[in-house]
Amino acid sequence: MEQLEEIPYDRIGEGEVYRTTYRVIREVADAYGELVGDGPGEAAPPWVFCSFVPLYDALGGRFDQGTIHLRQRMELFGRVDVGDELDVEVRVAEKYVRKGRNYAVLDVGFLRDGALKCRSTSTFLWGYAAQ
């Protein structure tokens, strides 16, 4: 398994946008489907958007060790098929410090041919174990 560079909190800036692509592959769609009791199909299950892979690819590494994923809201806007390659935009929506702890809110948009197919908004307590 590849060792990813840790991305310190100070490296991301509020309002910055990071980009990558994300291909919905059959093995991932089927694995998610099996976990939730869905059979294989051509339409990708919404769970494929729960992966951290696009975030890590866009940011160029993973969050600092000990980062906690506090909450996530997902909105689906259209069908995505297995095999689709999506453009991914990760926007740092908000950064703040509360009680001496670093928080970040990341908006992730999954687009196909310029049309938004899914938006995920997640809040992270960044590097909690190191604080």
Total domain units:
1
Rg, nearest Å: 15 Å
| Helix percentage | 10-25%
Helices, by number, come to: 2
CATH topology grouping: Thiol Ester Dehydrase, Chain A
Distance between the termini: 27 Å
Which stretches are low in confidence, meaning pLDDT under 50 for 5 or more residues running? none
The amount of beta strand, in percent, is 35-45%
The CATH class turns out to be: Alpha Beta
Strands of the widest sheet, in order across it, are 2-5-6-7-4
**Which structural class matches the secondary elements?**
mainly beta
Provide the CATH architecture: Roll
Please give the largest β-sheet: 5 strands, antiparallel
Q: What's the overall geometry?
A: globular
Mean pLDDT: 88
| Helix and strand pattern | EEHHEEEEE
What is the number of beta strands?
A: 7
Tell me the name of the CATH homologous superfamily.
Hotdog Thioesterase
Architecture overview:
It is a single chain. With 131 residues, the chain is mainly beta. It has a single domain, classed as Roll (Thiol Ester Dehydrase, Chain A). 14% of the residues lie in helices and 44% in strands. The protein has helices spanning 26-36, 53-59; strands at 6-7, 17-23, 62-63, 68-76, 85-98, 101-112, 115-125. The longest helix is centred in the first third of the chain and has 11 residues, at 26-36. The mean pLDDT is 88.
